Known about the structure:
- By secondary structure, this protein is of the alpha+beta class.
- The protein folds into two domains: 12-233, Alpha-Beta Plaits (2-Layer Sandwich); 249-364, Rieske [2Fe-2S] iron-sulphur domain (Rieske Iron-sulfur Protein, 3-layer Sandwich).
- The protein has six helices and 21 strands.
- The protein has helices spanning 32-47, 79-89, 144-148, 151-165, 195-205, 228-233, and strands spanning 2-4, 15-23, 54-59, 69-75, 97-106, 134-142, 172-177, 186-192, 214-216, 221-225, 252-258, 267-272, 275-282, 285-290, 304-306, 311-313, 320-322, 328-330, 339-345, 348-353, 363-364.
- Strands 2, 3, 4, 5, 6, 7, 8, 9 and 10 form a nine-stranded antiparallel sheet that branches. Strands 11, 12, 13, 14, 19, 20 and 21 form a seven-stranded antiparallel sheet that branches. A five-stranded antiparallel sheet has the order 1-15-16-17-18, with no helix packed on it.
- A hairpin with a 2-residue loop joins strand 13 (275-282) and strand 14 (285-290).
- The chain is globular.
- The structure holds FE2/S2 (inorganic) cluster.
- FE2/S2 (inorganic) cluster (FES) binds at residues 293, 295-298, 314, 316-319, 331-333.
Amino acid sequence: MQRTSQNRDLTKRQYVRFAFYKLDPLWRRLPADEQIEHKQELVDTISQFNRRMLLRPYSTLGTRADAELLLWQIAETPLYFQELASAIVRTRMGGYLNLAYSYLSQTKRSVYEIRDYRHASEEQLVIDPSEAKYLFVYPFIKSRDWYLMSQPARQGIMDEHIQVGRKYPSIKLNTTYCFGIDDYEFIVAFESDEPSDFLDLVQELRETESSRYTVQDTPLFTCINMRLVEAIDALGGPPIATPVAEDEQREVWMDVCPLEEFPSGSTRIVYLEGKQIGLFNIEGKLYAINNRCTHARGPLSEGAVDTDACTVVCPWHYAKFDIQTGHVVDGIASRPVETYAVEVRDGVIYVGIVPQSRAVNGVQKGQN
Length: 368
Ligand code: FES
């Protein structure tokens, strides 16, 4: 039987916020037991928002003098950013956290043609952070002369710019737009495991024609990807993070909702550990897969589900995935999507990221 998700409106532009905090040094003189309590309260408060937005923490301690913590937030509405900011200032540690920089932006399709681009323009609507160790963020403004040039003239200049970018395949660019909703025109965020690649790219771009039209591209933040509890620990005080070996796979679970609120035929999105997960109830069985299609990040929870075959068709370019295994069944995608564990405990649905040997996708409704 075919069915289509009711969540059609989720295929839309995302709102993005980069919030940089700096801790008042006075906090570091508090008694150690208070510091531990403050940090745990802050971690718990921020973690609650994982349900509503994609939240990635980074440390800028040691790379910037005027900021120490970045919370990169991606959501369907900017109202969640306001709620998170308000929740943070109400914590005890929030009284010592100064908001050093805040950038609000939105995803949007580029007006420039990116020839031979391997993915579709829809991909520009969706931020899907990688596990890269570094993130380089800066606001960007172009001169008004740039916008007065014809579209073909700007396209020609951008072609050269794009050509240089292609020499650095290890760098992933996330361009977001803030015309009218913040002081800048763009906020750009580059992901990479290697800062020297990014340095070389920026230096080479200075020699392109498009650089003439840059009015502002600072401040520039070099941010280090880490778990939230580690980024908070980096701020000072006794550590509260449980050490995790580099190659150790952690197990993380999150309660989603009572089973009775998620009947057969339902789909919903869950955010866990910086991943957007699509949860499906197909004929009473629960499945969780990465919500982003491996072709160009299409939202799988919005796709047509075949309940008999247990497959979903990506709404963007129609790649078909097996919901139980994540494997590609048909279409343009070449890689499977990740699957996640689902459990029902005391009538509540839990989604988990667990070592693959323990993952169980496809839990029968009511099963504990
Ligand atoms: S995004 Fe292209 S098939 Fe899914």
